[in-house]
TrEMBL record:
GO terms for cellular component: plasma membrane. Keywords: Flavoprotein, FMN, Oxidoreductase. This is Nitroreductase. The lineage of its organism: Bacteria, Pseudomonadati, Bacteroidota, Cytophagia, Cytophagales. SUPFAM superfamilies: FMN-dependent nitroreductase-like. One of its GO terms (molecular function) is oxidoreductase activity. Residues 37-204 form the Nitroreductase domain. One of its GO terms (biological process) is tyrosine metabolic process. It holds the Pfam family Nitroreductase.
Protein backbone atom coordinates (compact mmCIF):
# COMPACT_ATOMS: atom_id res chain seq x y z
CA UNK A 1 0.00 0.00 0.00
CA UNK A 2 1.38 3.35 -1.10
CA UNK A 3 0.14 5.73 1.57
CA UNK A 4 2.88 8.27 1.07
CA UNK A 5 4.48 9.78 -1.98
CA UNK A 6 6.59 12.72 -3.05
CA UNK A 7 4.72 15.25 -5.21
CA UNK A 8 6.65 18.22 -6.67
CA UNK A 9 9.43 17.44 -4.23
CA UNK A 10 7.30 17.42 -1.08
CA UNK A 11 5.93 14.51 0.97
CA UNK A 12 2.20 13.81 0.70
CA UNK A 13 -0.02 11.30 2.48
CA UNK A 14 -3.06 9.58 1.08
CA UNK A 15 -6.25 11.48 1.87
CA UNK A 16 -8.85 9.32 3.56
CA UNK A 17 -12.40 10.21 4.42
CA UNK A 18 -15.76 8.70 5.32
CA UNK A 19 -17.84 8.15 2.22
CA UNK A 20 -21.60 8.47 2.43
CA UNK A 21 -24.58 7.84 0.18
CA UNK A 22 -26.73 10.89 -0.64
CA UNK A 23 -29.22 9.74 2.01
CA UNK A 24 -26.52 9.43 4.66
CA UNK A 25 -25.12 12.80 3.63
CA UNK A 26 -28.58 14.30 3.98
CA UNK A 27 -29.07 12.99 7.51
CA UNK A 28 -25.52 13.89 8.58
CA UNK A 29 -25.96 17.49 7.38
CA UNK A 30 -29.40 17.76 9.00
CA UNK A 31 -28.10 16.36 12.29
CA UNK A 32 -25.21 18.81 12.47
CA UNK A 33 -27.51 21.70 11.64
CA UNK A 34 -29.95 20.67 14.38
CA UNK A 35 -27.11 20.17 16.85
CA UNK A 36 -25.30 23.45 16.18
CA UNK A 37 -28.61 25.35 16.10
CA UNK A 38 -29.01 24.49 19.76
CA UNK A 39 -25.88 26.44 20.64
CA UNK A 40 -26.63 29.62 22.51
CA UNK A 41 -24.42 32.30 23.95
CA UNK A 42 -24.67 31.98 27.73
CA UNK A 43 -23.47 34.55 30.26
CA UNK A 44 -24.52 32.83 33.51
CA UNK A 45 -21.98 30.23 34.51
CA UNK A 46 -21.83 27.57 37.19
CA UNK A 47 -18.49 27.19 38.95
CA UNK A 48 -18.54 23.37 38.63
CA UNK A 49 -15.08 22.29 37.48
CA UNK A 50 -14.32 20.75 34.08
CA UNK A 51 -11.64 18.08 33.54
CA UNK A 52 -8.57 19.67 31.99
CA UNK A 53 -8.47 16.90 29.35
CA UNK A 54 -11.81 18.16 28.01
CA UNK A 55 -10.33 21.64 27.60
CA UNK A 56 -7.23 20.20 25.93
CA UNK A 57 -9.38 18.33 23.40
CA UNK A 58 -11.40 21.49 22.70
CA UNK A 59 -8.22 23.46 22.05
CA UNK A 60 -6.78 20.63 19.91
CA UNK A 61 -9.96 20.84 17.84
CA UNK A 62 -9.53 24.60 17.36
CA UNK A 63 -5.92 23.98 16.37
CA UNK A 64 -7.08 21.65 13.58
CA UNK A 65 -8.60 24.59 11.65
CA UNK A 66 -7.22 25.57 8.24
CA UNK A 67 -4.86 28.56 8.19
CA UNK A 68 -2.97 30.70 5.67
CA UNK A 69 0.02 28.67 4.39
CA UNK A 70 -0.62 26.32 7.36
CA UNK A 71 1.14 28.80 9.66
CA UNK A 72 -1.39 28.12 12.48
CA UNK A 73 -1.01 31.72 13.71
CA UNK A 74 -2.76 31.26 17.05
CA UNK A 75 -2.11 30.78 20.75
CA UNK A 76 -4.84 29.65 23.13
CA UNK A 77 -4.16 30.64 26.74
CA UNK A 78 -6.06 28.36 29.13
CA UNK A 79 -6.65 30.01 32.49
CA UNK A 80 -7.98 28.40 35.66
CA UNK A 81 -5.90 30.31 38.27
CA UNK A 82 -8.40 32.38 40.33
CA UNK A 83 -5.86 35.20 40.83
CA UNK A 84 -5.35 35.61 37.08
CA UNK A 85 -9.09 35.36 36.46
CA UNK A 86 -9.63 38.16 38.98
CA UNK A 87 -6.97 40.33 37.30
CA UNK A 88 -8.64 39.74 33.93
CA UNK A 89 -12.06 40.63 35.35
CA UNK A 90 -10.71 43.85 36.83
CA UNK A 91 -9.00 44.78 33.53
CA UNK A 92 -12.05 43.91 31.41
CA UNK A 93 -14.54 45.72 33.63
CA UNK A 94 -12.34 48.80 33.72
CA UNK A 95 -12.44 49.03 29.89
CA UNK A 96 -16.08 47.98 29.64
CA UNK A 97 -17.18 50.63 32.12
CA UNK A 98 -15.61 53.32 29.92
CA UNK A 99 -17.01 51.70 26.75
CA UNK A 100 -20.58 51.55 28.02
CA UNK A 101 -20.33 55.08 29.47
CA UNK A 102 -18.65 56.89 26.62
CA UNK A 103 -17.10 54.82 23.83
CA UNK A 104 -20.19 53.04 22.46
CA UNK A 105 -22.77 54.95 20.43
CA UNK A 106 -26.41 55.20 21.51
CA UNK A 107 -27.41 53.04 18.53
CA UNK A 108 -24.92 50.38 19.59
CA UNK A 109 -26.24 50.34 23.16
CA UNK A 110 -29.80 50.23 21.83
CA UNK A 111 -28.89 47.21 19.66
CA UNK A 112 -27.49 45.42 22.71
CA UNK A 113 -30.53 45.98 24.92
CA UNK A 114 -32.27 42.69 23.92
CA UNK A 115 -29.13 40.84 25.05
CA UNK A 116 -29.09 42.50 28.46
CA UNK A 117 -25.34 43.07 28.57
CA UNK A 118 -23.61 45.69 30.72
CA UNK A 119 -20.08 46.49 31.93
CA UNK A 120 -20.16 43.92 34.73
CA UNK A 121 -18.51 40.61 33.83
CA UNK A 122 -18.83 38.24 36.83
CA UNK A 123 -18.49 35.25 34.45
CA UNK A 124 -14.79 36.05 34.15
CA UNK A 125 -14.42 34.74 37.71
CA UNK A 126 -17.27 32.22 37.95
CA UNK A 127 -16.46 30.15 34.87
CA UNK A 128 -13.93 27.42 35.71
CA UNK A 129 -11.84 28.24 32.64
CA UNK A 130 -11.09 31.26 30.49
CA UNK A 131 -9.58 30.85 27.05
CA UNK A 132 -7.84 33.93 25.70
CA UNK A 133 -7.16 33.54 22.00
CA UNK A 134 -4.16 35.44 20.64
CA UNK A 135 -3.46 36.00 16.96
CA UNK A 136 0.16 35.92 15.89
CA UNK A 137 0.63 38.84 13.48
CA UNK A 138 3.95 37.25 12.54
CA UNK A 139 5.89 34.22 13.72
CA UNK A 140 8.91 34.20 15.99
CA UNK A 141 11.22 31.23 15.45
CA UNK A 142 14.47 31.40 17.44
CA UNK A 143 14.20 35.18 17.54
CA UNK A 144 13.68 35.39 13.74
CA UNK A 145 10.51 36.97 12.39
CA UNK A 146 8.56 34.77 9.96
CA UNK A 147 5.60 35.79 7.82
CA UNK A 148 2.00 34.85 8.60
CA UNK A 149 -0.89 35.18 6.13
CA UNK A 150 -4.63 35.85 6.46
CA UNK A 151 -4.21 35.99 10.22
CA UNK A 152 -7.68 37.36 11.09
CA UNK A 153 -9.41 34.90 8.78
CA UNK A 154 -7.38 31.96 10.12
CA UNK A 155 -7.89 32.78 13.78
CA UNK A 156 -11.57 33.56 13.18
CA UNK A 157 -12.08 30.13 11.60
CA UNK A 158 -10.21 28.48 14.50
CA UNK A 159 -12.52 30.28 16.94
CA UNK A 160 -15.50 28.82 15.04
CA UNK A 161 -14.03 25.35 15.55
CA UNK A 162 -13.40 26.23 19.23
CA UNK A 163 -16.98 27.37 19.86
CA UNK A 164 -18.39 24.26 18.14
CA UNK A 165 -16.11 22.01 20.21
CA UNK A 166 -17.24 23.75 23.42
CA UNK A 167 -20.88 23.14 22.46
CA UNK A 168 -20.16 19.53 21.50
CA UNK A 169 -18.71 18.89 24.98
CA UNK A 170 -21.97 20.08 26.59
CA UNK A 171 -20.38 23.32 27.75
CA UNK A 172 -21.26 26.96 27.10
CA UNK A 173 -19.39 30.15 26.31
CA UNK A 174 -19.76 33.79 25.34
CA UNK A 175 -17.47 35.47 22.81
CA UNK A 176 -16.37 38.36 24.96
CA UNK A 177 -14.44 41.21 23.35
CA UNK A 178 -13.50 43.78 25.96
CA UNK A 179 -12.10 46.73 24.09
CA UNK A 180 -9.25 47.65 24.01
CA UNK A 181 -7.85 44.24 24.92
CA UNK A 182 -4.16 45.01 25.41
CA UNK A 183 -4.45 44.48 29.19
CA UNK A 184 -4.62 40.74 28.38
CA UNK A 185 -1.16 40.78 26.78
CA UNK A 186 0.27 42.32 29.95
CA UNK A 187 -1.48 40.04 32.44
CA UNK A 188 -0.57 36.91 30.44
CA UNK A 189 2.87 38.21 29.55
CA UNK A 190 2.52 37.40 25.83
CA UNK A 191 5.30 38.14 23.34
CA UNK A 192 5.17 41.15 21.00
CA UNK A 193 4.08 39.16 17.93
CA UNK A 194 0.80 38.17 19.63
CA UNK A 195 -2.31 40.33 19.86
CA UNK A 196 -5.45 39.44 21.86
CA UNK A 197 -8.28 38.30 19.58
CA UNK A 198 -11.10 36.88 21.70
CA UNK A 199 -11.82 36.00 25.32
CA UNK A 200 -14.07 33.02 26.05
CA UNK A 201 -15.19 31.90 29.49
CA UNK A 202 -16.00 28.17 29.38
CA UNK A 203 -18.16 26.21 31.79
CA UNK A 204 -21.54 24.71 32.55
CA UNK A 205 -24.53 27.01 32.52
CA UNK A 206 -26.16 27.92 35.82
CA UNK A 207 -29.29 25.88 36.59
CA UNK A 208 -32.36 27.56 35.11
CA UNK A 209 -30.55 29.85 32.73
CA UNK A 210 -32.59 32.10 30.46
CA UNK A 211 -31.25 33.34 27.14
CA UNK A 212 -32.62 36.12 24.92
CA UNK A 213 -35.53 35.15 22.69
CA UNK A 214 -33.91 36.06 19.40
CA UNK A 215 -34.18 34.55 15.94
CA UNK A 216 -31.76 33.38 13.29
CA UNK A 217 -32.18 34.56 9.73
CA UNK A 218 -33.94 32.22 7.31
CA UNK A 219 -31.94 30.37 4.69
CA UNK A 220 -33.48 32.55 1.98
CA UNK A 221 -32.00 35.61 3.68
CA UNK A 222 -28.48 34.24 3.97
CA UNK A 223 -28.17 32.12 0.80
CA UNK A 224 -28.40 33.39 -2.76
CA UNK A 225 -28.36 30.76 -5.44
CA UNK A 226 -26.83 31.36 -8.89
N1 LIG B 1 -17.88 44.19 24.45
C1 LIG B 1 -19.05 44.57 25.22
C2 LIG B 1 -20.18 45.04 24.36
C3 LIG B 1 -20.80 44.07 23.44
C4 LIG B 1 -20.72 44.29 22.09
C5 LIG B 1 -21.34 43.45 21.20
I1 LIG B 1 -21.28 43.90 19.24
C6 LIG B 1 -22.07 42.34 21.67
O1 LIG B 1 -22.69 41.49 20.77
C7 LIG B 1 -22.16 42.12 23.03
C8 LIG B 1 -21.50 42.97 23.91
C9 LIG B 1 -19.48 43.44 26.16
O2 LIG B 1 -18.92 42.35 26.10
O3 LIG B 1 -20.38 43.65 26.96
Amino acid sequence: MMNEKIIKGFPHVKYSRESYSDDQSMSKSEELFQFLSKRRTVRDFDSRPIPKEVMENIIRTAGSAPSGANKQPWTFCLISDPTIKKQIRIGAEMEEKISYRSRMSDTWKEDLKPLGTDWEKPFLETAPYLIVVFKQSYGLENGEKTQHYYVNESVGIACGFLISAIHNAGLVTVTHTPSPMNFLSKILNRPENEKPFLLLPVGYPQDETFVPKIKRKDLSDIMKEY
